[in-house]
Amino acid sequence: MVQRIIRVVLTIFSMFLGYGVVSLLYSTEVLNFIDDDFKLYVYILTSLIFGIIFYIAFPKFLFAARSIASSVEGELQQVPATDIVLGSIGLIVGLIIAYLSSQPFFNLGIPYLGVVISILLYLLFGYLGVIVPTKKREDFLMY
Fold first, then answer.
1. Percent of the chain with pLDDT strictly greater than 90
2. Average pLDDT over residues 31-44
3. CB 51 within 8 A of CB 18
4. Is the predicted pLDDT of residue 96 greater than 90, yes or no?
5. Under a CB-based contact definition with an 8 Å cutoff, are residues 82 and 137 in contact?
6. Which of 1, 9, 75, 85 gives 20 to 30 Å between its CA and that of 47?
7. Is 62 buried (19+), middle (13-18) or exposed (0-12) by CB count in 10 A?
């Protein structure tokens, strides 16, 4: 029963995704060659195609999600709880530091530079936030 509800919700979401793709193509003027009389039909047809594709592909998505979840669960069971807690706290601290250090780059006024630097800072500080506490576990647990 839950699988059917998820399948229907995913199908509806994918229909909205198809609608969004057509809207994006119209806004970038890729589909301007289509007459305005057929615009509604293009939206409906694309939404239905996306919905049908995702409805048919749902069992494969579900199988992949379950296999990924079981493998992640198996890996996490081998990791000590202290490492998980320290890594989570370090990740939160790293992301906060990345947020605070990326804010000045958004005010530069150079297009896209702030976004690129922000992504790089988030990746760097998030990675460091997880790695440093787990590698230096003894130093953090002494206090």
1. 42
2. 81
3. yes
4. yes
5. yes
6. 1
7. middle
pLDDT score at 143: 59
Write out the DSSP string of 5-32: HHHHHHHHHHHHHHHHHHHHHHHTTSST
CA dihedral of 62, 20, 34, 28, whole degrees rounded to 10:
-120
Q: With contact defined as beta carbons under 8 Å apart, do 105 and 117 qualify?
A: yes
- What amino acid is encoded at 131 in this protein? I
Entry pTM: 0.60
* 132 in Cβ contact with 104 (< 8 Å): no
Query: What percent of the chain has a predicted confidence (pLDDT) above 70?
Result: 99
Report whether 139 contacts 86 (CB < 8 A).
Answer: no
User: Which residue, chain included where needed, has tokens 């490492």?
Assistant: 83
- The residue-averaged pLDDT of 28-32 equals 78
